Every structure is written in structure tokens, then in C-alpha cells.
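Mods, move this if it's the wrong board.
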Amino acid sequence: MKKIVLAALGLMAAVALTGPIDTAHAGKPLTLRIGHPMAPGNNVTLGLEKFKELVEAKSDKKIKIQIFGSAQLGSDRVTTEAAQAGTLDMSSCSSPNMASFGKAYMALDLPYITSPKYQQNLYKALDEGELGQELERISNEIGLTTIMYS
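Not the wrong board. C-alpha cells:
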């Protein structure tokens, strides 16, 4: 939850720094689109719905999030490539598909990388530790920024 709140605040700060895109849209909410392949009720879908709720609330509805699930805009690889190209604002991508962008992401899918009793340690390493910092560096090299892990 902390990661989602920080991501929403970070997104708002980044948008605030850019200022209005043009004067014709001044005063209108900024709408950001995110595409993902998951079905309604999936943990990714639920996380993105919470993200939308937090961003819109914290921005006083100056930022709107449109969620396109169930692969409406394409697979996670297609939407991630679109985010890289700047034709889509955000994408949700599985770690196996992220491995095609950066081989370091393969580590997240190693069998038995952690047992359930250590799962929180892995999430902490992704959210606050060197593991997350390294994956963020790799993401930045390929034109992406990580907002959250699910």
C-alpha cells in the first residue's frame, strides 16, 4: 500500500513539474491511459483500480486514470512497447515479458526464489532495496519507469 501511495504522489509530482501541455487544455484534467492484459478481479486489476482511486483523490481529480484491461489495447508486451514509444502512458507487464526488455528480470521468475514465509522480504527489496534500485536503473535504460510491483 505504501508503494502505491508513494507512486501516486510521485506521478502527481512529475506531472506537476511538466505544467499544462497547452493553454487550450488548461483547467481540464490530465488523463493518463494504462493498458494491461488481466481480467476483472485479478490482483493486477485490483491494484490498478486502487492506484486510479488514489491518484484521482490525491490530485483533486486533476489527474484521471483510464484503465484498459483484458488486453483491450494488446498484450503486456505490446502495451509496454507502446509506453516505450510514448503512444500509451502506462502499461502493466509480467516479469517473463519484461525479461525480453532486460534479462535481469529473469531472476524474478526463478523457481523457488523465495518461500512464502520470506515473500515480504522480497517485496521490501523490490520497493526499498538494492534489487528494486537495480531494476529501476535497467528500466530507465530502456525508456521505462517502474511504478509498482504486484
